Amino acid sequence: MTDKFIYAFGGGTAEGRGDQKELLGGKGAGLAEMSSLGIPVPPGFTLTTEACRFYQRNDRVFPPGLREEFREHLTRLEEIQGRRFGDLQDPLLLSVRSGAPTSMPGMMDTVLNLGLNREIVDHHVGSGEKPRFILDCYRRLLTMYGDVVLGVPHARFEKVLSAAREEAGVATDPELPAEALLAVVEAYEQAIAEAGEPFPQEPMDQLWGAVRAVFDSWDNRRAREYRRLHHISEEWGTGVNVQCMVFGNRGTDCATGVAFTRNPGTGERRVYGEYLINAQGEDVVAGIRTPKAITGAGDDPGLAGDYPEAYEALEKVCERLETHRREMQDVEFTIEHGKLYMLQTRDGKRTGLAAVRIAVDMVHEERIDRREAIRRVEPSHISQLLAPEFDLEEKERAIVDGRLLARGLAAGPGAAAGRIALTAERAEEMAASGPVILVRDETSPEDIVGMHASQGIVTSRGGMTSHAAVVARGLGKPCVVGAGSLSVDEEKGELRVDGKVFLEGAELSLDGTAGEVISGALKPRPSEVLQVLLEGRDLGASPTAQAFQEILRWADDERRLKVRTNADTPADSAVARALGAEGIGLCRTEHMFFNEDRIGWVRQVILARDAEERAEALAHLLPVQQEDFEGIFRALEGLPVTVRLLDPPLHEFLPHERKAQVAMAEKMGLSPEAVAEKVEAMSEANPMLGHRGCRLGLTTPEIYEMQVEAIVRAACNLVRAGVDCRPEIMVPLVGVREEMVRLRKMIADVVARVERDEATELEIPIGTMIEVPRAALIAEQVALDADFFSFGTNDLTQMTYGYSRDDVGRFLPFYIEAGILKHDPFAQLDTSGVGQLVQLACRKGREARPDIKLGICGEHGGDPASIAFFDRCGLEYVSCSPYRVPVARLAAARSALGYHSGGKETS
Amino acid sequence: MTDKFIYAFGGGTAEGRGDQKELLGGKGAGLAEMSSLGIPVPPGFTLTTEACRFYQRNDRVFPPGLREEFREHLTRLEEIQGRRFGDLQDPLLLSVRSGAPTSMPGMMDTVLNLGLNREIVDHHVGSGEKPRFILDCYRRLLTMYGDVVLGVPHARFEKVLSAAREEAGVATDPELPAEALLAVVEAYEQAIAEAGEPFPQEPMDQLWGAVRAVFDSWDNRRAREYRRLHHISEEWGTGVNVQCMVFGNRGTDCATGVAFTRNPGTGERRVYGEYLINAQGEDVVAGIRTPKAITGAGDDPGLAGDYPEAYEALEKVCERLETHRREMQDVEFTIEHGKLYMLQTRDGKRTGLAAVRIAVDMVHEERIDRREAIRRVEPSHISQLLAPEFDLEEKERAIVDGRLLARGLAAGPGAAAGRIALTAERAEEMAASGPVILVRDETSPEDIVGMHASQGIVTSRGGMTSHAAVVARGLGKPCVVGAGSLSVDEEKGELRVDGKVFLEGAELSLDGTAGEVISGALKPRPSEVLQVLLEGRDLGASPTAQAFQEILRWADDERRLKVRTNADTPADSAVARALGAEGIGLCRTEHMFFNEDRIGWVRQVILARDAEERAEALAHLLPVQQEDFEGIFRALEGLPVTVRLLDPPLHEFLPHERKAQVAMAEKMGLSPEAVAEKVEAMSEANPMLGHRGCRLGLTTPEIYEMQVEAIVRAACNLVRAGVDCRPEIMVPLVGVREEMVRLRKMIADVVARVERDEATELEIPIGTMIEVPRAALIAEQVALDADFFSFGTNDLTQMTYGYSRDDVGRFLPFYIEAGILKHDPFAQLDTSGVGQLVQLACRKGREARPDIKLGICGEHGGDPASIAFFDRCGLEYVSCSPYRVPVARLAAARSALGYHSGGKETS
Predict the structure, then answer these.
(1) What is the torsional sign of CA A49, A50, A55, A58?
(2) Shortest Cα distance from B877 to chain A (angstroms)?
(3) How many Å lie between the alpha carbon of B692 and the closest alpha carbon of chain A?
(4) What are the tens digits of pLDDT across the range A671-725?
(5) Which ipTM was obtained for this model?
(6) Are residues B698 and A814, on separate chains, in Cβ contact within 8 Å?
(7) pTM of structure
(8) How far apart are CA A369 and CA A362, in angstroms?
C-alpha cells in the first residue's frame, strides 16, 4: 500500500490515468482520462479504493494521513475555483460520488451540493441573491444527505414536496416559487431532526459524512446482492470522487443529461440519450421526471435545438472518447448557462442487439479487429438476439381488440408474457409456479432479486437510463419503462390503467423492443434474426441479422470446438442447421414414442404377455421410427447424427389415468385392473436410479434391436437415394464394462444383418454416453467397445452431487442464495467435481483408444463457461439445443481466444 | 503343454504327487498321494486336466497320442490285476470318475463296472458263475452309463427296478434274485435302445464313451452353475480317473462307505461316516439307501462290529492321512471280502462349527500354527456359528403340541423358518417375497439355485453326505436330511406327513443342529455361541464358544484394522461390545425418532407453522434424545461413538395413512387436509437424491442444533459421573465444501455453548461421511473442516453406479445371472469403481489433513472381501452390524495375513 490515497483531476491534467480503474474506480479513472484529454471536466479529486479497503478492514477508521491529504486537495480546488468551501457569500459546492472498479449502477450513492447550510441559505434569501437556486440546491442536499447518509426514508421528503406543489398549484418542482421552497427546506430539516440527528451545519462534517456513507455503502445489502449476481469480488472496494459542482438547475439555460455515443438499444451510430432542463443529474438517473430525447422527437429537434453549442461540443466529446477508448461510451454531462461539462464516462452497457452491431461496425470502422469484436460480444448478447418476439399479426389483433394498455420506452428488447406481480417479493414467490411480469411504478436496488425472477419488467415512470432499464438490459430481460398510463397500487394488489383494474396474477404481455404493454398472454415467437436465418431471407433487409452472421463467421474462424445440436425431429434439425450446427450430438428416440399414433404400440411392447404380442407392437413401431430417422438424416445430410437408444424407464410410457388405462386394457384384451397393477408394479422409488437406459436394453433387448434396425434401414434407404447420411448409435447409462461389450455386439449384429438384407454397406460408429460416475471411473474399460464417448452431464451432475433435478428446488435456491453453492450446477458445469470425472474419462478413454471421439450433449453444452471447460478438456464437440448453437459457436471462439465468458469456479 | 497326458497310480507308487491337484484333479492327486503312502488303493491312472482343456478347446477332439498312451496304461493294469479288459471269463472291470482341481460334489459324473457286456453277462448266467453279482454290476453299469453318457432319464431305470422289487416281493435291491435281475437288465437295455442308441457292447467303446462324458460334463449347465456360485474358473477343466474296480456289492462281507477323519458337523475328533453293506459307492453318495453310521447307534457297534479288521485299518489310514495332510479328510472306501480299499481322499468340507473347532484343536495338537488356523477358518464359518437357533422352550412347546413333523439327520446346523417350496423353481420364485424352506425327497445338482434361494433345506431321503447335505453345508444353510416320514408330491404341490397334508406355501421350521422339522414358524434366535458370549457365561460349558473365542483372539493379534459397529440403541451396543466391537462407527439418530413417544413431536417439528411450534416440539425431543445417547455412551464406555446427525428426508417421518394424518392434525390444531397436503407437497420424485442429510441440516438448522445439544449434554452428564465417554459427531451427505464449513461451525458453536452451560470440557471430533461421489472427488477441500471421514459405501455405491437400492431388484438379479456383474455391488464393494473413489478420498483427505481419521460404516464393513480392500486402503476401522463384528475381526486378520476371503474382482 502506498501512502498516497488521493488523486487530483481537472483543468486539463490529472494525477491518475484512465487505465487505473482498480485504484480509482471506474468513475475516477474516467474523470482522470477525460481531464487529460482536455475534455471540460469540473475539477475534483478521487479517494482511492485502497482507502476504502483500509476503512473496511479497520473497523471504519480512515487511513492515517488521509484527512491532511484531503485538506490539501480541497484547498487546491478552492484555489482553482476562486471560492471557499463553506463561504457565506459565494460558497464552493461539492459533489461526493462513489465509483467502484466495475460499474454498479444504483448500488452506490451520491450526494450533491455539499457545502450549504442554513446560514448560507438564509444569507442568500435575505440578500435576495439567487435565493431560488440556492434553496433548490439546499433542498436537494437535504434530501440526498438525509436519505443516503442519515437514513431518513426518501418518501418523507417526497410527501413534503408533493404537498408543496399542490399548495402552490404547480406540476413540477422548477415551478415552485422561492417562498414555497423555503417552507420545504424547513420541513425537511425538521423531518431529519425528528428521525434522529439534525442535518450537520458544518460543511466539513457534511463532506466527511458523505465520504463515510459512500465507503459504508460498499457493504450494504443491495450492493452485496448486486455483486453476488454479477460475480464481483467483495474485496475490491469503491473509490470516492469529490468534485466541484456545476449546475444544471441554475435556470432554463442549464440542463443535465446522460448520453451514449451510440444507441444502446440498437447499436445505431448516433449520440443517443436524454436530458432534463433546469435539473440536477440525480433527476435523470432516478427516473423521477421523464426526460427529453437528445435526438428529439417529432417536431422537437432535441438537444441540438435547445443548446446548439453544447450539442456540438457533446458530439465532439463523444467522437473523441470513442476514438480514444475504442468503445461505445456512456457519459453524464451538465450544461451550465449553455456550457457543456462532462461528469463521467464509462464503457456503455447495451442490449445484445447493440453489442453485436457496435462490435461489427467498429471492425468496419477499423477501430478494433475481429478478435476484439469477439471479445466484446458476450454469449448472452447472442442469446438476446435470439430472444423471442411476439407474432406481429397476433399482436396487432390484440391491439385492434383494445388490449394495448400502454406504450412506454423500449428499454430492454424481447417479448415476454406472464402473470402480473406488483412487488419484487411477490415476483419471487410467483416465479416458482410460472412466468411472471414485474410491474412497478419504478424499481430500486431492493428489487434486484425480484427482477431476476421475472420474465420481463414494466415501470410506469423513468427513462432509458432509469434503474429498471439499466438493470433489465444487464439481465437480458425484456423491459418497458415510463409507461405513464399504468398505476400500481401495491396495497390493494391492483394495476390500474385508464379506469381498468388488473389484479396481481392476471396475465400480461410486454414487447420490450416496441415498448408496448398488452393485456393477456401473447405467445412469444422467434426473434427477427431467427426468422431471417430460418426462412433464408436476404440478410440485406436486416442489419441485425447481417451483423449476427458476420460476428459468428468470425467466431467460426477462431474456434476449435465443433458445435452440434440436440434435436429429435426434422424441424428442430433444420433450425439447428440454419443456426450453424455441425451435426446432431443427441437425438433422443423416446420423444418420438409419445406421438399419438405410436404410444399405444409402445404400451403394448411394455404390457405384452408374450413375445408374440411384443413382436407385433414392435413391428408397428419399426416403420414409423424409420421414417423419423430418414427425416432427421436428410435434414443433416453430410453431417453426423448421434442417435441415443431408448433411455427413460418404461414406466414413463404407461397410462397413469384411469381412462387411458381402460382404453389400453381394451386394446390388449386385458382387464383395466391388470393394466393398473402393471403400472403400479413398474413404478420405482427412485426412477432416476432405476431400470432405464442400457439396463432396459439388456433386459428387454427387442426394443433396442427394433431401434437399431430402424436406424440402419433408414440410412440404407437414403444412401441408395444418394444422400450422404452419417448415423452414429449411442448407448445410454453405461456403468459396467460388460454392458457395453454385450450391447455393442447386439447392435453390430443387427447392423450387419440389416446391411446384408438391404445389400448396402454403412459405417456406423457405436459409442456410449458417460453419465454414470462409474463409467467415468472405468472409462478405460468402456472405451474398448466404444467408438465415442458423449458426456451426459445432466445425469452425471445428478449422480455426482446426489441431486435429483426434479427435487432440487427444495434446497438449491437456498444453497445459492446463502452462497453454499456459487451457481446452479445444472446450468454451469461443476468443474471441480463433475469436471474431474469428465477429465478422468477423457484421459482414460484416450489411453485405451487413442482415436476415440469425445463430445458432450448435456445441457451444459450451451453454457459459455462450461464450453470453455470442455474446450480445455480437448473435446471434439459440444452439443446443445438448436437455439443455443450460435451462443455455443461464439463461446467456443471466445474460449479459443482465451476470453472469459462468465461463470465462477465451483466450490 | 507336455505330451504326457496320463499318470499311473497304485501298488505303492504313483507317477503323480498329492500336490498336483491342478494337473491331476483333486481325486487323481489324492489317489496318487495315498498310493505313494502305501495306503491300499486299487491301481489305475489319471487323464490330466490338460487333456480336458485340449479337448474343450479343440471341438471335443482328444489330444494326439492320447489313445496310444491310454492303451499302454490299460495294458499295465491288465498285467497288475492278471485280468483282461473285455475278457469273457474273468473280465477286468474299471471305473471312470471325474476329478476337478477343486472339489465339485455331484457336479461331475461317475461310471462304474465298465467292461461288461451282454455276452459276458450271459456267459456267467449260463455258467452259473456268480450270476447275481455280475448281473448287479451290469445293472449298475447300464443305469449309470445310460444316465450319464447316453442321457436316459434316471427315473426310467428306477421305475423298472421298483416294479421288479414289487414283483419279487422284496424291499431292497440286494434281495432281488438273479432271475429278477436278468429281467431288469433286459428291460434296461430296451429302455436305452428306445431312447436312442443301444448300449455299446464293445468294452473299449464304453470306456471312451465314459471318458468323453466326463470331459463333456465339465461344460454342462449344473457344473457351470456350481462354478459361478463358487467362483471357480471355467478354464481349469477336470481330470479323469480310470481305476480297477473293487466291489462292495460282492456279498455281505463287502461294503462301501464314506468317512470323515473328524465329525464334519461338530469337529469332534473321531472317525465319522456311513457305510452300506453289499453296495457300491454310488448308493451312499446318491442317498438312495439310508446307510449305517460308522460309529454305530444304540446297541449297534457300527463298522467296528461289522468289519473289525477293516475298521482298524480305516482308523490307521485316517490318522496317517491327517498327519500327512495336516487337515481333516473326507475319504471314500470299499471293503471287499473284509479287506479295506481307499478310493478317494480330499480335504473335508465342514460346518462352521467344525471348522472352528478343528482348526483350534489342530493348533493344540501342534499339527498347524495359529496363522494356519486363521487361514482355515473362513469368515463364513464364523457367521455360521452366529447363525440363529430356535428358543429351546418355544421349540419344546411346539413339540409337546404335536408340531414335530419329522426327525432326520442334522446335516447343516442353524435354525430357519419359512414357507414350504417343493421344487427349486418355486423356491426361487417364492424367495422374492419372504423366507422359503425347500422340501424335497432328495436334491440334485439341478436344484442348486433354488437351494441358494432358500433359508433352509429338508429332504426325506439321503444321509450326511447326500447331495443336499453337502451343498447345504457349503452354503451355510440349515439342513435336515433323511427325514423319512415326509413325502413330497410335487404335482399336487403337497407335503404329506403321517396323513397330514401341508400345501406349498405353508409355514415350516427346521432345526438343522438337532435334525428336527416342525410345522409352523418358530422364531429363530441367537446361537449358542452368541448366548454364551452375550450372557457372559463360563466358556468351559461350551467347547464351541471356547474355540470361537480362541480363534478370534488369535485373529485380534494379527489384524491392523479396528472393528467398530453400527448400533443405534444401548442393547445393540452391548451386543456389539460383547462380540468385540471397539466402538461405534455409525449411530443413526433417525431410528430413535420413530419411537411411539416421540414420532408425534418429530412430526410437529416438520409441520410447525412457526418457529415457536417447532421449538416446542424440539424441546420435547431434546431430553429423550439425550437419554438415548447417555445409554449408548455408557454401553461403550472408553470407546469412541460416532453419532450421525439426521439423514433421511423429513417426508419419511410424516404419517401417510389417513388415520394417522387425522390424529396429527388434531394434535396440532390443523385440518387433516392441511396435513395431507403437506405430506403430498413434501414427497419427492427421487428421495434418494433429494432433500436429506446435511441439506436438511442447513435448511432446518434447529434439528441438528437440538441433536448436537443432546449429544453434548449427555456426554457432560456422564463425564461428571466419571464415565469415560467419547462421542464423535458426523455430518451426512456432504458434497460441497461450504456445507462442511458451515455445519462444522454450527456444531462447534453449540458444543461450546453447552460446554459453557454445563461447565464441562469435552473434546468432540467433528467429521463427515463420504457418500456422495463429489465428496470423494473434492475430499481435499472437505478434509479442511473434517476431523474424520467415514465412507458411507451404501450411498456411494448407489450414486456411483446410478442404482437405487429400492429398485435394483428389477435388473440386478438378471445382471448377476447373466454375468454382466460378477456380484451384487451392495454386498461386496466394487473395488474398481466405487473403490477408486474411496482410494482417491483417502489420498486427498490425508494430503489435506495428515492426521485425518478414516473409517467405513457402510454395509460393506461386514463383508470379508470388502474388508480386505479397506485394509489395503489403510483405513483405521471398519464398522458393521453387531453380529458381523466377529466376522470382521477374522476377515481383518486374514487380510493382514494375506489370505483371500472370497469375492471376485469387479467388472
Answers:
(1) positive
(2) 25
(3) 10
(4) 998 898 888 888 888 999 999 999 999 999 999 999 999 999 999 999 999 999 9
(5) 0.80
(6) yes
(7) 0.80
(8) 8
